[in-house]
Design brief:
The chain has 2 domains: 3-213 and 250-274, NAD(P)-binding Rossmann-like Domain (Rossmann fold); 222-247 and 278-344, UDP-galactose 4-epimerase, domain 1 (Alpha-Beta Complex). 38% of the residues lie in helices and 21% in strands. The chain has helices at 12-24, 72-81, 85-90, 110-115, 117-120, 123-137, 180-200, 222-231, 252-265, 282-293, 317-323, 331-344; strands at 3-7, 28-33, 49-53, 56-59, 65-69, 99-102, 141-145, 163-164, 204-209, 211-213, 237-240, 246-247, 249-251, 268-274, 280-281, 299-302, 311-314. Strands 3-4-5-2-1-6-7-9-14 form a 9-stranded mixed beta sheet. Strands 8-17-12-15 form a 4-stranded mixed beta sheet. Helix 2 (72-81) runs parallel beside helix 6 (123-137) and helix 6 (123-137) runs parallel beside helix 7 (180-200). The radius of gyration is 20 Å and the shape is globular.
């Protein structure tokens, strides 16, 4: 049986990945999350905890889902001290992890990124510990989620915004300035991924997701927050900044689909965009959700709120050319799913 490690397994992307692995494989999953942001598996899994084995919860009758609650760095320290810590501690018979999905990070919306940048900078320590460990452990495949925040902010200004392509980040040339400490940490993580692949032969692929969204996303993110306010028919409808700033929205199901395609085909540490290739302003997004709700509110701009870069969207031509992939869920369909989920919460 294959054994996969998922750090940050209870966050938005992590739990959607876990669900996909449960549905599509019979493999054993070792989940790690400190629940500082993520949600306990009991809130989103169909299975109950069958038993506890010291500090691990074993979930489901088949006992192939293990949940370790804690700081991922603590587990990595134990694994550095004893490479077979997990096997010996919990009686699991496997030589090494097959796939490692590294979602553990200090994340949040724009308020977190700009309001507490030093907390976000802790991602540097998480990633440094992680890449040091994988070069020792040598898993079969590794996913490192970077971010579209790694792209130079001068390419995302009101006057100079362009569709961002993978080659706009060139480690052999001028990198440009990424978006706050979050962008710097992800850029550094990408560089470590390339080192792990090139110098240590570790199969790694990096992804640069744009604005992923879905039905179970935390309300600190704009899509579910706007959907919830539209479902409550708020009027006036507040928007951070002018609302003219735009993002590239891509449904989490499409994100997961492309992750597996990339892991099957890329191992040299290079990075690929995950987006729709379309720019949608927050005013447009409000219009979509209030359209679902059947009303036209007054828009009230909050110009004192942090808004980040003006326009961030992807050029998906490289992914199309190499893998013939494009999102399967349209903006209208995806946002409808989010709106329906918001209605169910009222």
């Amino acid at each position: 049986m294959k054994v996969h490690l998922i750090s940050g397994a209870c966050g938005f992307v992590g739990r959607n990945m876990v669900r996909r692995l449960i549905d599509t494989t019979g493999d054993l999953l070792f989940m790690v999350d400190d629940l500082s942001i993520g949600t306990h598996p009991s809130a989103w899994m169909e299975y109950n905890t069958s038993r506890k084995l010291e500090d691990v919860e074993i979930i489901g009758e088949q006992e192939r889902i293990y949940f370790w609650k804690g700081d991922f760095r603590d587990l990595l320290f134990r694994l550095r001290e004893n490479p077979y810590y997990i096997q010996e501690k919990y009686g699991l018979a496997f030589d090494h992890f097959s796939d490692v999905f590294h979602f553990a990070a200090i994340v949040g919306g724009r308020a977190k990124i700009e309001g507490d940048p030093m907390a976000v900078a802790l991602d540097l320590s998480i990633d440094a510990e992680f890449f040091y460990w994988i070069c020792q452990h040598r898993p079969e495949r590794v996913l490192y989620p970077s971010s579209s925040a790694a792209y130079p902010i001068n390419l995302q200004s009101p006057s100079g915004a362009i569709a961002l392509k993978e080659s706009d980040i060139d480690f052999g040339s001028n990198l440009g300035v990424p978006d706050m400490t979050y962008g710097w940490s992800k850029l550094t993580g990408e560089f470590l991924a390339r080192i792990a692949a090139t110098h240590y032969g570790i199969p790694v692929v990096c992804i640069r997701p744009f604005s992923g969204y879905g039905e179970d996303q935390d309300l600190s993110y704009p899509v579910p927050a706007i959907a919830a306010r539209a479902a409550r028919r708020e009027d006036p409808f507040e928007v951070w900044g002018t609302g003219k700033q735009g993002r590239d929205f891509v449904h989490i199901d499409d994100v997961i689909d492309l992750i597996f395609i990339l892991m099957d085909n890329v191992s040299d540490g290079s990075a690929y965009n995950i987006g729709s290739g379309k720019l949608t302003s927050f005013l447009d997004l409000i219009g979509i959700f209030t359209g679902f709700a059947g009303y036209s509110p007054e828009i009230r701009p909050l110009t004192d709120k942090p808004v980040g870069v003006h326009s961030r969207y992807s050029d998906m031509s490289l992914v199309w050319d190499r893998f013939r992939w494009k999102p399967g869920i349209s903006l209208e369909e995806g946002m409808r799913r989010v709106y329906d989920a918001a209605l169910n919460q009222i």
